Amino acid sequence: MEHRPYLLAEEFDHFLGDPDDPAETFSYARCDELDEKEEFPTAVCARFEEWGLPGQYVPVEHGGGLRDYEQVLQLARTVARRDLTCAIAHGKTYLGGVCVWVAGTAEQGARLGAAIMAGLPVSLGLTERAHGSDLLAGDVRADAGAPGPDGHWLVSGEKWLVNNATRSAVLSLLARTDPDGGPRGFSVLLVDKRDLGEGAYRHLPKIRTHGIRGADISGIAFDAARVPRGALVGAEGAGLEVVLKALQLTRTLCAALSLGAADHGLRLGLDFAEERQLYGRRLVELPQARRLLAGAAADVLLHEAVALVAARAVQAQTAELAVTSAVTKYLLPTGTDRVLADLTELLGARAFLKGVHAGGRFQKVVRDHRLVGLFDGNTLVNLNALVNQFRPLARGFRRGTGDTAGARTACDLAAPLPPLDPARLSLVARHGSGLLAALPAHVDATVRQAQSDPALAPVAAAARRLLDATTAVHAEMEAYGSGLTDVPPAAFDTARRYTLCWAGAACLGLWTHSADHAGGDPRTGRLWRRGLWLHTALDRLLVRLGEPAAAGTETYDELLGALRETRTSGRLFSLLPQRLPGTRTATTGATAAGTGRTAC
Q1: What pTM value is reported for the model?
Q2: Would you give the distance in Å from CA 481 to the centre of its chain?
Q3: Bridge partners, 141 (sequence order)
């Protein structure tokens, strides 16, 4: 059966036109020009609005078209594949609204949804100049003013390093509502700047950045701004919990930014290797270049598998999203940085030069993507979130508990997803990870397949080794116990290796439950045949777990062959068959379900 999220992303991509055509609004050439000028991509965002992308940021229950988080992942990946600045600048509106989607009233959701659909960008005000990721140290205050339903808060203080702080009309603001602070001392307010009195706020200057140069990264300062009491999102004092739950959604969807950057970088590396002549041969014919390119391709498919399962888990395993989001937000940005570093080695000096290979786009992809690891909690924040859950995760793996039924749904691309129930979001996966609990069954299934198809024997052997490594990692986690305050460096390394085990479980789950239908498509069958993509993915993970390699040169050569085919097939290098737009092939009349228009 057709995979619907990919079809909508394909439609959107073709609507945007051929990115290699300089005449298109959202072309590579135009994005490079905006980057040079450090200019916001206003016209590009208008094209998103014309198609109806903002409607995909608003859940259906609030009047929009968002009913499938895998679909949002694919749409955001489509934008990020062309330009990360545009993806980050426009996608910020979803981040700004997500606190309301998680904890707001039906009235707040309908009002904010209508505002987004009518053209208002929204931002999220969390960070402060002096405190960075330490949200409990925040100094922005919301003091109780006049009581009652017609009363107000008096908001004072400064939020800094906020995406769209200046351009947004509305922002979700984390503010201190108890002078003593603490976990119950902060609340989220939905602040509409249009309703604030003159002099109640001012914008801070745009901050010049190394990457995403055109984005509105700035700040906002409040001076006794009167904000209605009804702007409170969730309960008073529940702000930190609301934000942390909201970030579980946004951290998972940040995978789209890394996937898009990797898509772009991999294609640039492939084109260079095919066209560059060295020592009387094309670069793609040299062994070391082939290995670098094939390894990068293997990582791209590994990351795609993780992102697909994680995005579906938003709805299928909501109660375990504290784990899923931390794994995804750690693994994909760091892994994509590694992919781009490997491709840099392949391109050599041309990875850093402008106007030489592909207009110098590669250096922009690298610059832009380095910021992704900082969004919505940096690398250490996400690893620490896993360390804090070592005890229930280790206990759940030992007992085989967790949402295994939800894991099956997350891994079966043909299975319908249930609606998201924000009430199921939890700060801790209390019963462990259902995906890891299902790993032994998925390994057994792969072993059984290998018994009837000997070509799968190397994949089955790698799967068994992954299970052994995963068991050892959980034993380490259990040894740490609970209540860690000063986390030792070794615990962070254990958390890092846990993310690799989770990724392996996601790959095996996807193979077990989706190979029959996804692998049957002749457009992508080569990647699924004999478990090719799974074999290289498990090999990459085992090596990073400190284990011997599980795949040899012949396997990677086969993968490289599949990658090289995409230069002439017009398809994205992917586990799923998405067509890419070519010159003059863009459609013009398509719009998304639940469309709306929004400024950027």
Answers
A1: 0.95
A2: 30
A3: 156, 176
Instruction: Please give the structure tokens belonging to residue 429.
Output: 């996966």
Backbone angles phi, psi at 421, to 5 degrees: -110, 100
Instruction: Specify whether the CB–CB gap between 230 and 104 falls below 8 A.
Output: no
- What is the model's pLDDT at position 594? 40
**Residues 361, 269: Cα–Cα separation, whole Å:** 11
DSSP 475: H
Distance CA 187, CA 572 (A): 43
Burial of residue 44 (number of CB atoms within 10 Å: 0-12, 13-18, 19+): buried
Q: What are the tokens at 593?
A: 């379900």
Which helix (H) or strand (E) covers residue 57, if one does?
Answer: none
The tokens describing 275, both together, are: 């066209």
Mean pLDDT value across residues 525-534:
96
Using one digit for the tens of pLDDT, what is the confidence trace for 543-588?
Answer: 999 999 999 999 999 999 999 999 999 999 999 999 999 843 333 3
- DSSP state letters, 222-278: EEEEEEEGGGEESSTT-HHHHHHHHHHHHHHHTHHHHHHHHHHHHHHHHHHHHH-EE
If you average pLDDT over residues 398-413, what whole number do you get?
98
Identify the three-state secondary structure at position 162.
Answer: strand
Closest among 147, 21, 37 to 85, alpha carbons compared: 37
- Looking at residue 142, its pLDDT comes to 98
CA-CA distance, 441 to 429, in Å (whole number)? 21
Tens-place pLDDT, residues 226-273: 999 999 999 999 999 999 999 999 999 999 999 999 999 999 999 999
What would the mean pLDDT of 440-458 be, rounded to a whole number? 97
On whether the CB atoms of residues 431 and 397 are closer than 8 A, the answer is: no
Is the distance from CB of 80 to CB of 257 less than 8 angstroms? yes
- DSSP structure class, residue 579: B
Nearest to 367 by CA among 27, 598, 31: 31
User: Could you report how far apart the first and last alpha carbons of the chain are, in Å?
Assistant: 36
Q: How many CA atoms lie within 13 A of 352 on its CB side?
A: 4
DSSP state string for 535-573: HHHHHHHHHHTTPPP---HHHHHHHHHHHHHHHHH-B-S
Residue type for position 36: E
Q: 374: burial class by Cβ within 10 Å (0-12, 13-18, 19+)? A: middle
Most distant CA atoms of the chain, gap in Å: 80
Could you report the per-residue pLDDT of 273-316, keeping only the tens digit for each? 999 988 889 999 999 999 999 999 999 999 999 999 999 999 99
Radius of gyration (C-alpha) of the chain in whole angstroms: 24
Helix or strand or coil: residue 154? strand
Q: Quick one: CA dihedral 292, 294, 295, 299, positive or negative? A: positive
